[in-house]
Amino acid sequence: MRALISVSDKTGIVEFAKELEALGIQILSTGGTYKKLKEEGIKAVEVSEVTGFPECLDGRVKTLHPAIHAGLLAMRGKEEHMKQLEELHIEPIDFVIVNLYPFKATILKEDVTREEAVENIDIGGPTMLRSAAKNYQDVAVVTDPADYEKVLGELKGQGQVSLDTKFYLMQKVFMHTSNYDTMIADYLKKERKDTALPETLTLTYEKVQDMRYGENPHQKAAFYREIGKKKGSIVDALQLNGKELSFNNINDTNGALELLKEFSEPTVVACKHGNPCGVGSADNIEAAWDKAYQADKVSIFGGIVVVNRTVTAYMANEMSKIFLEVIVAPAFEEKALEILKGKKNVRVLQLADIEVPQNENAYDLKKVNGGLIVQTIDSKLLEEADIKVVTDRKPTDKEMEDMLFAMKVVKFVKSNGIALAKDKQTIGIGPGQVNRIWAAKQSIEHSRELISEEASAGSVLASDAFFPFDDCVEAAQEGGITAIIQPGGSIRDEDSIKKCNEYGITMVFTGMRHFKH
Ligand code: 93A
């Protein structure tokens, strides 16, 4: 029996080859692998000896030869195939151990050039893997060093690799080569700066870990990461304390981080079930924490807190008084970390570059039964220049500041969403209502119940989409709200504007809707 070994990742290969050799299997090998095996005293034969053709073109052509591929593809049970091999003086190959040029590691390198990436596209390796896998009944094909042991175990135990295992190995090959090609195609799409949504969508994500369960304990779940560098993302956070992140932790933390990225000044975001429950911005991070916490001292319990400056000992002390699921920050004072580590269950994550936004062409994917809906992310940032004042009264500077703040928050509130803010602090949030007036009423109710009876007086209101009727203005007036920010664009805008003018409320339109579901 013969085994062809050609590997870039040489982990465990010497031990494996030695065992194969001891089982009486002849080893064929390519340049670098051959050299390594030879050094270790393994009697390998160079592929060029089998093909009668030298490796050429800087190694671009090593194994691309009929003597190899006919040896892999010949069906042993087909008399005609075996006769042809004999006539052509080609011997069958029974095992293929191949792993590919490190394309992924190459594109992850800083400052990698396109030429370098292209040179790391393996041609001969996938071709051998595919030939061997197609002929899986007769050839055992191993591409993952983790499978060396399994194959050896069967060879030693039963003298052969079972059909079941060969079928498993075949399936693994096609999964591997398709991922490899997808990775190349994705890289090239980015290189071309092609932002069009593709005709067919292939996704390559690699598993970070299996999770204990999904959104609920009876659902299976795993965490996958996109291949490539992902600055400022939950996948790159360093966990310093606490249990493994759960499915809901990852989802909620991701949402909280996306909101946080809207702010450059010291800001703290508290989230629960995918919605912000308290957000505060201030000149210093401790004051921002106080605001986020005071905004809703009830819902934050069991929530996620993300912070865009170093967590201080004061903050850690305050945080440790309540139960938090996850805390994320770019850094922690030594004392702060010590305090937080005193709480075994709280997951503490450090995320450098927390402020780095997603690429604006990144996809947002939603699975529907039988399909996938794909869009680019809602990355547009609101600027004061986009804002149109539509009422008689113009906003004061402070109202404008608070409206911009509230709009950034409501962008991340599930629709229909309303957020109230005062002094760069949310004071009421109405998320996920099936009609807007309920969201408005809930946000006012929130401020009254969780802050104080008159908390909404003098605040501003932000709405993720336009007002279909003037009832939200009515509710705002009752709550003592003085300024409203919303996209505008309803056929009944005039009704709302009229009502604002009647009440002396100022209202501005952004022209940009932020539905979120
Ligand atoms: O350059 S290739 O695309 N052309 C080939 O004919 C070929 N044959 C094997 N790459 C080829 N390989 C790859 O070389 C294997 O997939 C493996 O990753 C690598 C092993 O090379 P070496 O044994 O010289 O280290």
Specify the CATH class of the largest domain.
Answer: Alpha Beta
CATH architecture of the largest domain: 3-Layer(aba) Sandwich
Distance between the termini: 59 Å
What Rg is obtained from the alpha carbons, in whole angstroms? 31 Å
Proportion of residues in helical segments: 25-40%
Enumerate how many helices there are, as a single number: 18
Mean pLDDT: 95
Estimated structural class = alpha/beta
What name goes with the CATH superfamily of the largest domain? Methylglyoxal synthase-like domain
The backbone outline, from C-alpha atoms, is elongated
Biggest sheet: strands, sense, closure? Answer: 6 strands, mixed
Count of discrete domains: 3
As residue ranges, the low-confidence spans are none
GO molecular function, one term: IMP cyclohydrolase activity
GO biological process, one term: 'de novo' IMP biosynthetic process
Catalytic activity: (6R)-10-formyltetrahydrofolate + 5-amino-1-(5-phospho-beta-D-ribosyl)imidazole-4-carboxamide = 5-formamido-1-(5-phospho-D-ribosyl)imidazole-4-carboxamide + (6S)-5,6,7,8-tetrahydrofolate; IMP + H2O = 5-formamido-1-(5-phospho-D-ribosyl)imidazole-4-carboxamide
Protein name: Bifunctional purine biosynthesis protein PurH
What does this structure look like?
By secondary structure, the chain is α/β, with parallel strands linked by helices. It folds into three domains: 190 residues, 3-Layer(aba) Sandwich (Rossmann fold), CATH 3.40.50.1380; 118 residues, AICAR transformylase, duplication domain (Cytidine Deaminase, domain 2), CATH 3.40.140.20; 126 residues, Cytidine Deaminase, domain 2, CATH 3.40.140.20. It is built from 18 helices and 21 strands. The strands form five sheets. The chain has a six-stranded mixed β-sheet, sandwiched between helices. The longest helix is centred in the middle third of the chain and has 29 residues. It is elongated and about 100 Å long. The mean pLDDT is 95. The chain binds ligand 93A. The site of ligand 93A has 21 residues, from β1, α2, β4 and α8. Its EC number is 2.1.2.3, 3.5.4.10. One of its GO terms (cellular component) is cytosol. Keywords: Hydrolase, Multifunctional enzyme, Purine biosynthesis, Transferase. GO terms for molecular function: IMP cyclohydrolase activity; phosphoribosylaminoimidazolecarboxamide formyltransferase activity. It comes from Anaerocolumna jejuensis DSM 15929.
